[in-house]
Amino acid sequence: MAKRNAQNERMKRDYVLFLEETEGLDEKSTDKVLAAILKFEVSTGFKPFTKFHIEQAVQFKKELNRAKHPRTGKALSHATVDATLALVRKYFTWLSGRNGFRSKFTYSDAAYFKNNRKNARIAHAQRDVPYPSLPAASRAFEALPSDTEVQMRDKALFAFLMLTGARIGAVATLKLKHVNLTECHLRQDAREVATKNAKDIDTWFFPVASAYLDCFAAWVAYLREDKFFGQEDALFPKALVGVKDGEGFANLGLAREGYASTANLNKIIRNAFSRLGMPEYTPHSFRKTLFLLGVETCETLEEIKAWSMNLGHEHLSTSYQSYLPMSRERQREVLKRFRS
Fold first, then answer.
1. Residue numbers in the chain where pLDDT is lower than 50
2. What is the pLDDT, as a whole number, of residue 326?
């Protein structure tokens, strides 16, 4: 790989500072921006941004459409390509107004990074989100073993997701102090919990099967009474792995800290379904399961609004657009009932 360009690196640092201070982006978000710009630099052999030409943008789009995902070997999704182009286009739009770049290219030159209409429509098309039915979730939950404390944690995680619909990124950062079993309440304090858009979220447990609450309550009691966990310890701690005499590497119990990423927590839920031959539903799909339960359960607009807020949505429309998109055919079926 060609050597990175020092001037390019300085401009990228300035851009990151700009995004952090003017748009409030966090490190996770700016890392995505830098990754997209790096892809462009690789395509040009790390030529200086001052040497930018619209042909570079055209070539970059062709390369993205031919690129393969490094892990799966499949072509990049339309959504990935579209998002990458948008991030790079925004960067060059900003760059066109910087000193030393105004005479090199213009604001309109950055528009050459724009995706074509067909691919952009595909990238932004609303798609049905696979989700487990309540019976499917119950079956997967009941089949989970709970012989070891790691298995107890995994089963409690499943139960907790059904009770709260919390996003897995937030779940990974939860501590015991954020749960009030007496009130059946979860407090997602954005100062300590990785909530979406850094929002404080209050969730009261959803009215699902009592087995979920029994399992989760038993887990909390186990952490407090048997493991002597305190308020600042993780609600779903990571496993301790080490060398065990005669067995090599093995699980040695639980740490007091949570996982640094969501990968392991996602895997736990996916495996809970796949081991029974069901699709590998994700933790996030539980949110759709719960919202559709609310659609069936709630009788007033106030009730469905409260249900939506319980999922962390400020606007009811967000819940409907995310978890209950309506096709033209479904619209026709619903309205036909009024004529029968």
1. none
2. 65
* 272 CB burial (10 A radius; 0-12, 13-18, 19+): buried
Q: How far apart, in Å, are the Cα atoms of 327 and each of 288, 302, 330, 333?
A: 17, 25, 5, 10
Q: What is the pLDDT of residue 1?
A: 56
- 185-188, strands of its sheet edge to edge: 179-180, 185-188, 201-204
Nearest of 46, 53, 62 to residue 92 by alpha carbon = 53
Spatial separation of the C-alpha atoms in residues 109 and 44, rounded to whole Å? 16
253-282 residue pLDDT tens: 889 999 988 999 999 999 999 999 999 999
Strand partners, 237: 258
pLDDT at 2 (0 to 100): 65
Task: List Cα–Cα distances, 243 to 78, 240, 247, 255, 340, in angstroms.
Answer: 44, 10, 7, 15, 70
Q: Within 13 Å of residue 92, how many CA atoms lie on the same side as its CB?
A: 30
Here the tokens at position 320 are: 């409907």
Contact 38, 87 (CB under 8 A): no
Q: What is the pLDDT of residue 329?
A: 66
CB 308 within 8 A of CB 318: yes
29: helix, coil or strand?
A: helix
pTM for this model (two decimals): 0.74
